[in-house]
Amino acid sequence: MWNDWTIVLFFVVDFIIRVIAVIVVPRNRRPTAGMAWLLAIFLIPYVGVLAYLLIGNPKLPRYRRKIQADINEFIRIASENLPQQDLRPNPPPWFSSLVQLNRNLGALPLLGGNRAKLLGDYNRSLAAMVEEVDKAKKHVNVEFYILSCDETTAPFFDALERAVARGVAVRVLLDHVANLRTKGYAKTKRRLDDIGADWHLMLPLQPWRGKFQRPDLRNHRKLLVIDGLVAFMGSQNVIDRSYNKRVNIRRGLQWQELVARVEGPVVGGIQAIFFSDWYSETGELLSGDIDLEDPNVLDGDLDCQVVPSGPGFDGENNLRLFLGLLYAAQKRIVITSPYFVPDESMLYAITTAVHRGVPVDLFVSEIGDQALVYHAQRSYYEALLRAGVRIYLYPAPYILHAKHFTIDDEVAVIGSSNMDMRSFGLNLEVSLMVRGESFVNDMRAVEDEYRLKSRELTLDEWMKQPLRSTVLDNLARLSSALQ
């Protein structure tokens, strides 16, 4: 009799779980993500429910969302004091509406009078950062998803130490979980202490201190601001090019990055992102102005707008920007993304562009460093190739980690955001939209270099993939929607 009641209880609980899941899971969630979670809960109810309770909420805790709302208002007010410069004339008809979109979602304005230089060499970009840190007079604000003191990055940490010795305020933010998983984390913390830097962890998982959120919500931003005059942002972390992982070293993997060195009024916008993250983690409200007496501040020819995004915002700011640009394009689209796992809206935008007669090139790595993401990405290749997208595979042993894309002749985006569902919904990211032919030409030169080194994947080649690869790709695609 006891066994009979146990079986009845099991089926009752199982039924209740399924009913509650149907009511709760799809609410305010993307349909694909809702279906993936429901599938997990229906097939493996108890494991699925535990996973949902742990990582099912795609937003930051309520108190952090409140902080983000306060920050957005602060940024909106502070941005009114950023130095204004005449914007470039004759923008594309669609451009002003996208600027307004970014302003409404991310609170930062489009600013003219900027200059930007692209740095695609890994060691040279680190050297350029060191050079600017050594020039710092007031403050150095450092924020990287991964910040690791190793043989490659030691000069950067040495430059921070020299800055502190000169009396420069050195503030450092680094993501907790990403660095916890990185070799040399304890050494890096000791080095920051020895330097005398004021450093803090981003999105720390420290429940004993009341600091806890969904464990896979991460701050993926990468930026460096010196004196409010010069900023670096892009895809590159401060770590050896192999990421110091034994498996990467064994495979000979090397990361290929792209960083923008920026000067002008928009540096104030990039610094505002650092200020917002600093406030989120420390409760300290910083302020800083661009030195208007510096003759180099307002003489650039680029219009730039900073676009922050992440689970603290109501909307997916980066995804909305990318979709707007994809639908606006009239001549050409070139996308570079190391982890390309689009949601349905982005897949439709890209394939629709091709059907509208707009050529689309996609640069991805031939090999992957994260198996699940790599296979999820591959599951989209057939649909893209059939639509007419040209896919270029950047050769091994390099991981093309750069994140940027160009639209037509005068608009480009560079930043920390991948074109995947994690970057759209779970990571804190920062993107820079740039209008200016000179910058786009420089970006096209980078893309042309990728094209020379890469090989084009054809539909005929892809259709020869073995069945086991297709099954693995599709399973990975299902798991990628669990947000």
Please describe what this structure looks like.
There is one protein chain. By secondary structure, the chain is an alpha/beta fold. It has helices at residues 2-24, 31-43, 45-55, 62-79, 95-106, 122-133, 154-165, 176-180, 185-195, 246-251, 266-282, 317-328, 344-355, 371-378, 381-387, 421-425, 437-453, 459-462, 467-480; strands spanning 111-119, 139-144, 169-175, 198-202, 218-219, 222-226, 230-234, 254-256, 259-263, 302-309, 333-336, 360-365, 390-394, 398-400, 404-407, 411-415, 427-435, 455-457. The strands form two sheets. It has a 16-stranded mixed beta sheet that branches. It has a two-stranded parallel sheet with strand order 8-14. Helix 7 (154-165) packs parallel to helix 9 (185-195) and helix 12 runs parallel beside helix 13. The two termini are 42 Å apart. The model is unreliable at 289-295 (pLDDT under 50).
